[in-house]
Amino acid sequence: MKKLSYVILCFSAVLLSSSVFAKDAVNASDPEITQVTSQGDSVPPYAVSEQLVVEGEKLYKRRCGGCHSLDNNRIGPRHRGVYGRKAGAVVDFRYSKALRNLDVIWTDQTLNEWLVNPTAFARGTSMGFRLKKAEERNAIIEYLKSLSSAPDSSANAQ
Amino acid sequence: MSNNSMILSSRRAFLGATGKTLSATALAMVVGSNIKTADAADASQDIQILNAAIALEHEGIAAYQIAATSGLLDPAVVDIGVTFQGHHKGHRDILVKAVETLGGKPAEEKSLGAYAKDLKASTLKNQADVLRLALDLERGAANAYLGLIPSLGPDYHQVAAQMAGDEAFHAAILANALGQPIPKAALMFG
After folding, report:
1. CATH of the domain at B108
2. Minimum mean pLDDT among A72-86, A134-148, B20-34, B150-164: which range?
3. Of A145, B41, B118, B159, which residue is most buried, by most CB within 10 angstroms?
4. Model pLDDT for residues A89-121, shown as the tens digit of each residue
5. 3-state secondary structure A84-137
6. In chain B, what residues touch A75 (CB-CB under 8 Å)?
7. Phi and psi (nearest 5°) for A86?
8. What is the sign, positive or negative, of the torsion defined by CA atoms of A25, A78, B128, B134?
9. CA nearest B119 in A: which residue?
């Protein structure tokens, strides 16, 4: 009896700690980046690799173009400016509850984790599409980054 | 062994056995309820993904409707487009049934005007423009289905793969109509 209780206790502890660690991983983005708010056209673009951006544009069309566009909401929300933005923040798109409640800023790390397995990243999301190849994820993220504005350093300093 | 010690010993044995029985029952209840919760969560997750697929099919149906009534296509091309649209309607119906079977509410279609805006239909000037749009959508849909299979419950793997096959078939016809070369590398989708 004691042994069984001990096993159940240990199992619960492992489950609890793994869920806490998972939450930490989601919130582990750079604190400066998490302060990013809507940026205007006057702020500079992110530094990107031109070669990756070219590759990413082609891949974006093939891998994401079934459901997404840059400037119009379709099956999924529009993507221009998504990098550095909070998840679930396109005001005129109807998100799943999972995305509305997701406290994440889209960065290299979070976008990568999302594209590896969106339903593990945000259980209950409508997006089931997984992008298996790391090099494809990197290129697409770089492309999306090229279409977003970098945090305004003067705004961050205030 | 005295009577007292015999009573204590049998009580311990009884409590031990009862405890084991209760623990096993409690554990089974906990596990059972967890399985039920997991099943419900899995169904709910499947509904979300299947509804996204329904939205994809709604858009495909609308795209072919916009194309067929654009006045930009030869009659023979319209016929092919209408046939492809029929496939998408077939997909939609299967997906709607699946969502309803899981206890969900199927995604509703938007207005034709909304789809025309989303797809920038006003920029289409000739038949080749229409075919390119259709090809992009079909390629995207084939990739979308292949990419979402691992996230879906196993009951829906085969039907999603079948739909990906249909979209790939459409894409091949459209690419051929546009005179695009046959891809050299294998694994063209997914």
Report:
1. 1.20.1260.10
2. B20-34
3. A145
4. 999 999 999 999 999 999 999 999 999 999 999
5. CCECCCCCCCCCCHHHHCCCCECCHHHHHHHHHCHHHHCCCCCCCCCCCCHHHH
6. 52, 55-56, 59
7. -70, 145
8. positive
9. A72
Q: Is A149 helix (H, G, I), strand (E, B) or coil?
A: strand
Residue A118 and residue A105: Cα distance in Å, rounded? Answer: 15
* Interatomic CA distance for residues B66 and B71, integer angstroms: 9
CA dihedral B44, B50, B51, B52 (to 10 degrees): 120
The ipTM is: 0.78
Nearest to B118 among A5, A63, A72 (CB): A72
**What is the spatial distance between Cα B158 and Cα B53, in angstroms, rounded to a whole number?**
14
> Is residue B9 one of the residues assigned to a domain?
no
Q: Map tokens 């619960």 to a residue.
A: A12
Contact indicator for A67, A81 with CB cutoff of 8 Å: no
Query: Does B144 fall in a domain?
Result: yes
Instruction: Name the residue range of residue B108's domain.
Output: 42-177
- What pLDDT, on a 0 to 100 scale, did the predictor assign at position A135? 97
Contact B45 A123 (CB under 8 A): yes
The answer to whether B64 touches B82, Cβ cutoff 8 Å, is: yes
Does A117 contact B151 at a Cβ distance shorter than 8 Å? Answer: yes
Measured between CA atoms, the residue of chain B closest to residue A121 is: B151
Chain B residues whose C-beta sits inside 8 Å of any chain A C-beta: 16, 19-20, 23, 27, 41, 44-45, 48-49, 51-52, 55-56, 59, 117-120, 136-137, 139-144, 147-148, 150-152
* CB spacing of A75 vs B19 below 8 angstroms: no
- Specify the amino acid at residue B156: Y
Distance of alpha carbon A119 from alpha carbon A117, whole angstroms: 6
Q: Which chain B residues touch A101 with a CB distance below 8 Å? A: none
Structure tokens at A1: 């009896």
Q: How many domains does chain B have?
A: 1
To 10 degrees, what angle do helices A134-146 and A50-59 make? 110
